[in-house]
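TEACHING EXERCISE
Course module: macromolecular assemblies
Task: Read the component lines below, then compare them to the predicted structure of the full complex.
Student: A.B.
Group: 4
Components provided:
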Amino acid sequence: MRTEIPAKLRQILEPASIVEDETELLVYECDGLPLFKHKPDIVVFPATTEQVAQIVRVANEYRIPFLPRGAGTGLSGGALAAEGGILIELQRMNRILTIDVENRFAVVQPGVVNLHISQAAAPHGLYYAPDPSSQMSCSIGGNVAENSGGPHCLKYGMTTNHILAIEAVTAEGEIIRLGNPAGEMIGMDLIGAIVGSEGTFAIVTEITVRLLPKPQAVKTMLAAFHSVEECSQTVSDVIAAGIVPSAMEFVDAKTIEAVEASVYKAGYPHDAVAALLIEVDGFGEGLDETARAIVEICRRNNAYEVRVAKDDDERARLWLGRKGAFGAMGRLAPDMITMDAVIPRTRLPEVLAAIDRMSGRYGLAVANVFHAGDGNLHPLILFDSRYPDQVDKILGMSEEIMKLCVAVGGSLSGEHGIGYEKKDFMDLVFSEPDLDTMMRVKRVFNPTGLLNPAKIFPTRRGCTEIGKHGTTSTAEIGKRVEAVLLGSPAGRGRYAEGAPDEG
Amino acid sequence: MDEDRRPSAGAPSNDGSALSPQGEGLIDGIPLAKVVRPESIEDLSEIIANEKGSIVPLGARTQTYFGNPLRNADCVIDLSSLRRITEYNPADLTVHVQAGVTLGQLQQALIENNQFLPLDPWNGPNATMGGIAAANAQGPFRAVGTIRDWIIGMKVVEVTGRISKAGGRVVKNVTGYDLHKLYTGSIGTLAIIAEVSLKLRAKFGRTATSIAKAADVSSAAQLVASVRHSAIEPVACEWVGPENEIWVRLGEHPSAVDWQLKNLPPADWTILEGREESAAWERLRSRYDRLAPIVLRIVGLPISAHEIIKEYRPPAWIAHAVNGVVLAEVRTAADIWRVREKYRAVIERAPLEIRRNLPSFGLNDAEYNLMNKMKEAFDPGGRLNPGRHVDGERNQ
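Instructor-supplied answer key:
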């Protein structure tokens, strides 16, 4: 990086808001996906939108890459400084600016932690619906970038369904405001395009989110099954009965084993092959009947145990097992990778059976804990990175799982994003014209390609179509990815030891 | 009534037969000389690839009055033959439809499985899914979402004839950019929507509509406020003026609807269910059709319907009362200017001369610049539905 750049940035920010020290920079070399690491050249902590805009203009002036980062909990490498440059860390822009109770919206800065919005709205009987499992640490700016989901998006929709307006800094450093608190889209849905663009269209600096009234009542139940098929059939039957559950989560035997051996012990039945955590919410009236109908469907599908939580404590315990499942995997293996793929929910039994067969073939244990209601799978491949052959195998197996999900009509990611991790698999779902059109739209927002480069698009496309502007590390990273994807020894890397984040 | 400003009655192309655009083969005074009707998406792609002039996509033509005026129409593409529901997976709550499938046709197919799409745009059941998406058409169900909330993927034909897709076929998906969001509301000026994938929901266990008439604007406003402050959650809440009727629609588990009916704020409510209920909403739809000559969609804060109505005193209106969106009947261009001094306002329907002189969307600079660049990126020659969207916004 040219030496004038830090000096320029010091004109915008106080010294305490700039990190240049090589050791300190290590903190920012990856996000929640530590497989891919690359240090930014410099990290800055702006406090205002104006500062963000000025930083972006400096990056443009010197033609160096830049990207935003929130809490760094993302699981697809979206906040990886793949080509170095300036990492714009938004954690200090963490104020809740407005809670408008009458109009049911909140205006927040991007560094605000997801759960803090609901906490601030709670005294008014309101909450922010999208609830990624990392909601205690992930930032709303990151949620907007990734279009994050969570267990309850089965009923309430993803982040994109809850963003009413944004202020953003464009890739060229201009401050723009889009949308309105009524959520009325005027002309084309630009906000809809920006949400989920994984930080490649603009840096969102202020967000107006919709707040919902808290449901009057909630019922949570757990059903245990002796077979995956019966468990999956229950999911389909609940949907077919016209019930709209707020969440329908699947946990398998492996997951139960891990959870029950951990601090997240939730009292899940030890001998279950699969269990469903089902939640319904809404008006108090009618909810008991709905819960009874669900219990009946579970029984009809041979659930051998159905437990309806009697109070909030029991509810919380049932959820503890589900939400702690990822952390609990440490009981079973030192390493794991968290996959994220979507399939039509009716294909669950066959896909899970196929994954089970793969598990046998590769000799790698797989735990399944996921959002069954919307077919959003999270196979957790357990391994031990001290054995290099296991590392090679997981790469092959994860690729096979992705191909399988796409083959049954599904998609690469339900909520974690493509980022750096899956960009070279985009060809599985999208044709050349599809990707070319997406690239065209990217160029409208990000004409120089300097904003968060080397994401979403297959590597060769990124190089040829956006143009080379990066450092020599681009080539290194490219080689590493190739190596990883091809499973050669050069690509061996350690995945997360327990995933810090998942949907 | 001016031919240019009103939708043609019914859906003339719905049966795939005669084409009678706004009566006389005109849209915005532009004659529709050459009309082609592709039978498949590949057909559509080929037609577009071979056309060198301007291209105008048409569905059921219930919304040809919406948007900025059309400039020319070398080739009109009537999409009414693309009316196949290509795949419906009730257990997955997804459906994939060609652009020419009408909303009514779709709902009819879904009802067999007790499912539906919670959309009730004013242009009615004859409107096509492609058209509804292209115009982002809405109705009272806006309280529970608009089409953007239900679309999970799209296949489009670009100006070169190239077919491309975005999104996917599953209910939850973050793979690639959500270009289907951009196409929604773009009136076919970026690309022509050929197929739409939608997620669905189970039909409400029961619906009921309560209607109360308030004495005047301020007591109507009070009633709306008490609905908002109550524990009920309407799936539609309309304030119809000048009668000052408040329409509250409830949709949920039957017991929850009962409970909500009992907990409505005090007023002289008439409760409608079943056929009576659907007939009433059908009447409201024709009420919307009678708003004339200009319908302005005024956007405020969710609670500002009262303020808007009080300030501009439109002769007639339908407000999405809990969303802060007022569909106001206004008379002149000056009225539009006056509203736009304070609020965002989209012209939903207006005579040609008004739309010639005033931008339909009233975009701010940021929106205008981005949309303009988007148009340039997709259709540099300006051949798709020329003039109708951002390309007709600032050259009056």
